[in-house]
Design a protein that fits this description.
47% of the residues lie in helices and 14% in strands. By secondary structure, it is an alpha/beta fold. The protein has one domain: NAD(P)-binding Rossmann-like Domain (Rossmann fold, 3-Layer(aba) Sandwich). A seven-stranded parallel beta sheet has the order 3-2-1-4-5-6-7, with helices on both faces. Helix 3 runs parallel beside helix 4. The termini are far apart.
């Protein structure tokens, strides 16, 4: 049975856990061969174990997405292993510390911008060069609802995710003529390790209370699951989405579309 991505070749960064791992499993289930990139080799091995049942080739690469040479390296590895690159998913991300802008540590600002924005730029740059040469391809960047809305206590994360949307729209206009597409997704509160860290950072003494508060911002009254995000990602990089370019798809249970939670709880 053919899947959305049968015999496609995809690179996924940040593949060691959370949304990246869910993408790896979904893409493999849909028929793709994968180059999986992360800094944590043990986490990559866990992802491979989760995705291996689908019988696709899974190539792990330990790399830092903020490094030009290492990014060139995993793109070249993809070409060496498979001869082409059909999809590039720039998913690696870092949440940083929870603190207001006027107190935010400068070193954390720099690190979050490096991973969440520079890393996306580098992945786009070197994958797009290959895609233009081959006359086809799809890039998908993981932004966030923080690419649309402010996220108090996360100035660097919010700035980076806004930047990802800008990079996506700009590149889409540049490469469409080569039959190459660039899109972004904006997950909201998603049930991942990153959100556990955000919950603890927001309320160290009672992260469960923080979790309930964040979940209540969605009209669906729950977090989005990584597998739900992965399903959207697989569609957007697939040939089924061939007319979609320069788009930014939110997947947040309606959080950014309504302030239902505020009305319900009598806050406004």
């Amino acid at each position: 049975m053919n899947g959305l991505l049968t015999d496609q070749v995809a690179v996924i960064t940040g593949a060691g856990g959370g949304i990246g791992r869910a993408m790896a499993v979904e893409f493999a289930a849909q028929g793709a061969d994968l180059v999986l990139v992360d800094l944590d080799r043990d986490a990559l091995d866990e992802t491979i174990a989760a995705a291996t049942e689908h019988g696709r080739r899974l190539v792990p690469v330990v790399a830092d997405v903020t490094s030009t040479e290492q990014t060139k390296g995993f793109v070249q590895t993809t070409i060496d292993e498979f001869g082409r690159i059909d999809a590039m998913v720039n998913n690696a991300g870092l949440e940083g510390k929870v603190s207001p802008t006027h107190e935010h540590p400068e070193e954390w600002f720099d690190q979050v911008i490096a991973v969440n924005l520079r890393g996306v730029f580098l992945g786009m740059k070197y994958a797009l060069q290959r895609m233009i040469e081959q006359g086809s391809g799809s890039v998908l960047n993981t932004s966030s609802t923080s690419g649309l809305l402010g996220f108090c206590g996360h100035p660097a994360y919010t700035a980076a995710k806004h930047g990802v949307v800008g990079l996506t729209r700009t590149a889409a206009g540049e490469v469409g003529r080569y039959d190459v597409r660039v899109n972004a997704i904006g997950p909201g509160m998603t049930n991942t390790r990153l959100m556990r860290d955000v919950e603890r950072g927001t309320s160290p003494d009672d992260p469960e209370q923080s979790r309930a508060l964040y979940a209540s911002t969605s009209p669906m009254m729950r977090y989005t699951e990584p597998e739900e995000v992965a399903s959207l990602a697989a569609f957007l990089v697939s040939p089924k989405a061939s007319g979609i370019n320069g788009a930014y798809y939110l997947i947040d249970g309606g959080m950014s579309a309504t302030r239902e939670a505020f009305y319900r709880d009598g806050l406004i």
